Every structure is written in C-alpha cells, then in structure tokens.
Amino acid sequence: MAIVFGLFDNLQIDPADARAAGEVLERRLDDLAYADSLGMWGYFTAERHFWKAYRSVAPSAWIAAASQRARTMRLGVLAYTLPLHDPALLAEEIAFLDLLSGGRFELGVGLGHRPVELEQIGVDPATRIPRFQEEMAILQGLLSGGTATANSDFHHLKEVSLGVLPVQAPHPPVWYAGTEMNAAAWAGANGHNLAVGFTPLKNLLPVAVAFRTARAEVEKQPDPPALANGGKVALMRHCYLSESDEAATSEMAEDLYRLNSLDPKVQDGSRANRREDAQEEVKRLLDGEIFIAGGPESVARQIRFAHQALGLDLFLANVYAAGIESERVRRSMRLLMTDVALRLSEVSVG
Questions:
Q1: Which of 81, 239, 245, 259 is the most buried (most CB within 10 A)?
Q2: What pTM, to 2 d.p., does this model score?
C-alpha cells in the first residue's frame, strides 16, 4: 500500500484575513469538497479551547458539517482532549458522527498539550493520565455496544448504554496523538494508531520505535487481541507547495514579510532588513522541520525520508499557513495529490 495523504487543520485564525468567521469557515468547507474531489484519504481537525488564536472549539460540530460536504474522505478529530470530556456523552457524539458520515469517522484521543485548558474548567492536570485511562475504557466499551457503570474519583455512571451505535465495528479506528514514549507504547499494545508531528524527525524516531515494538510484542502472544484497525503512523506537518523550491521559499518569505508588517512591534528598521528577517524565518521553519515545503520533487524527497525514518503510513498536511489565499491552499493540495503522489507511488508501507 502506498503512502496516503490527508489534511490536518487546527482552524488557526489568520491575522491577514479580514473576512468574517462564518465566511472563512464556509470557504474551508469548499476546500474540503475540493480535497475530496482530488481523492484525498482524509481530514482531521483539532480541539482547542479558550484560545483566541483558533476556531477549533467544537470539533464534533465541525466534522458533522464537513461530513455533508466531503462525501468520501475519512473525517476525524486529532485529538479530543479526553480529560475535558464526559466519556459517556462523548461516546454518543462519536457514534452519531460515525452514523452521520456513513462509517467514515476516525477517533483521535490525547491527554491535552495545554494543561491550562484543564485548569480553566477545574480539572487538575495531575490527574490527566488516570482520567484518560478510565475514559478510554468507558469509550471503547460503550462504542462496542457494552454497558458502563463507574463510581470513581472522576466518573459516576449507572448502567449506561448507547441508543445509537457506530457503523464501524467494534468502533471507529483510534489514533493516539502525542510524542510521549510510554503513551505511544500503550497505543501500540492496544491496537491503536499513532499521530505525531511538528517536531524534528530525530525526536519522533524513538516514539515510533516504542509504538511498533509494543505492537509487535502483543502480536507474539499465543492468543493476541484483535489489532486489525491499528498499527499505522501518521506524520503531521505544515506543508507548502509551489512549482519549484525557489518559488516556494520566495512566496513564503513574502508572506512572512507582509505578516510582520502588520505587527507594530516589528515595523522598526529598514524594509530591506525586514525582508532579510523574513528569509531567515523561512530557513528556520524548514531547518526545524516545522514545514515541509518546496517543489514537488523536494517535498516528495522529504516525505520519503520521513517514511524511511518512521515507517510512515499517512502524511497529514496543514496547508493553511497564515497569509495564504485560497488559490495557493488548493495548489498545495493539488500538487500533493498529483506530482508528489506520483513520485511516491513506488514507496510501499504496511
């Protein structure tokens, strides 16, 4: 099976975009329909709360809307911050989303990378791990058609079962989003998938190794549990494509120059210096592996290297860098699904 391509979108607010929020979101839905028409594998949104830089505050509602515009691609959340949720109510949402999308939902779960989100609603961040473990057990049990009863420090449930079950059995595929090695090993041992990103590959390599090693150990058991839906590794990266490397870096630098010009704190100094600063910033983004960018050949080479390092199955591109108009967003999607995919067609995974 070849590497497949999808989108990751945290609905970050673009300071250069003066359109109303509703217009921006409607355009995003148009983009999803376009990505669907290209044959893209899937789309994930994030969950962010109480943070003015993002609009991904209601991921279930957003995926429900997306399911009516993108009719074939997989759709999911990377990731629900489980300690923020009542697991029984979240299980109902997930089951309904899977029904609404015709069995296309992908369930991402995480501990939450911003403990302040937990503190703001009275959840002690120190309890994240036991909460997460308990909530995963409840989620999987309910989504598989079971009944849940709990009386713990975190949850009080009495013979709860779902009135609506997911289309996919026993439940939608589960993705763990995070780069902590013990958590990655847990995901591998429990038949889940792993999503990592936005940090250099050298930091992600031991995480992927822990994930695959744990899964392999489970598979060695005399009577291993069903692991059919898991074992995949996804890499999330900001991604910018143009016709050539030179065009891509030049366009990115110009975007950064215009964005910096909007910030009164950086308006001092000559225009030439600010352009040099923008060019240096592009170099930092590329060297730090925050972005995969360039022409199709260069981007394909970078993804191929990530595949070789991590055993990559899925590349999730965030094509919504600030300052980029819709035409260039769609150009990145199109080049990814045509020129880049063609160059990677010989790469096998799984």
A1: 239
A2: 0.94
Q: Judge whether 24 and 17 are in contact, CB under 8 Å.
A: yes
- Look up the CATH number of the domain holding residue 223: 3.20.20.30
- Specify if 125 maps to a domain: yes
Among 76, 79, 1, smallest CA distance to 32 is for 76
The sign of the dihedral angle between the CA atoms of 116, 120, 125, 129 is: negative
Tokens 């945290």 — which residue? 10
Q: Is 255 contained in some domain?
A: no
What is the C-alpha to C-alpha distance for residues 327 and 218, in angstroms, rounded to an integer? 46
Instruction: Report how many domains make up the chain.
Output: 1
Cβ contact 80:109 at 8 Å: yes
In a domain, 281, yes or no: no
Q: What is the pLDDT along the chain (350 residues), one digit of tens a residue?
A: 579 999 999 999 998 899 999 999 999 999 999 999 999 999 999 999 999 999 999 999 999 999 999 999 999 999 999 999 999 999 999 999 999 999 999 999 999 888 899 999 999 999 999 999 999 999 999 999 999 999 999 999 999 999 999 999 999 999 999 999 999 999 999 999 999 998 999 999 999 999 999 999 988 888 776 676 789 999 999 999 999 999 999 999 999 998 887 766 555 555 667 888 899 999 999 999 999 999 999 999 999 999 999 999 999 999 999 889 999 999 999 999 999 999 998 665 55
Residue 105 lies in domain: 4-244+290-343
